[in-house]
Write a structure and sequence with these properties.
With 158 residues, this protein is an all-beta fold. It contains one helix and nine strands, in the order E-E-E-E-E-E-E-E-H-E. It has one helix at residues 134-137; strands at residues 4-10, 15-21, 29-36, 41-48, 54-57, 83-89, 95-101, 116-120, 146-154. The mean pLDDT is 96.
């Protein structure tokens, strides 16, 4: 089994490559890469349930959530496995990704291999939305449209 996976993100304007490395099942996963073509600012960044792009990024389905939790931020006790928070694009539209996560895994029945990474048009509110935003906040973080996505595939070991 390789300790690395890769997702090549493609959208109408946004593109990028994201690598996931996990040295053993008990180690946290390291998610790193670069995404280009974003508007400056914060963008929701998630692992979605399906590795399906037959209908663009919509067919990636909801956030990967094998434990039936509500949406949260990457440091929340209650969150989807796929809730990775936000990436931040600079004035040049480029976001450098470097996330260490204890829930994402390349091993076992809850592996993220074969699922999708999605970067969203808007900022993820990390499940903290209130008022008319509260209900959707607990599902998606109100991050908006899907700007780009890519299937997470097994990569050659490093």
């Amino acid at each position: 089994m390789s300790n690395r996976a890769v997702a090549v993100l493609r959208g109408d304007v946004v593109s990028g490559t994201v690598w996931i490395t996990q040295n053993s099942e008990s180690d946290p996963a390291v998610i790193e890469g670069e995404i280009k073509g974003l508007t400056p600012g914060l963008h929701g960044f998630h692992i979605h349930q399906f590795g399906d792009s037959t209908n663009g990024c919509i067919s990636a389905g909801p956030h990967f959530n094998p434990f039936g939790k509500t949406h949260g931020g990457p440091n929340s006790e209650v969150r989807h496995v796929g809730d990775l928070g936000n990436v931040e694009a600079g004035a040049d539209g480029v976001a450098k990704v470097k996330i260490t996560d204890k829930f994402v895994t390349l091993y076992g029945q809850n592996t993220v291999i074969g699922r999708s990474i999605v970067v969203h048009a808007g900022e993820d509110d990390l499940g903290q939305g209130v008022g008319d935003k509260a209900e959707e906040s607990k599902k998606t973080g109100n991050a908006g449209a899907r700007s780009a996505c890519g299937v997470i595939a097994l990569a050659a070991p490093q």
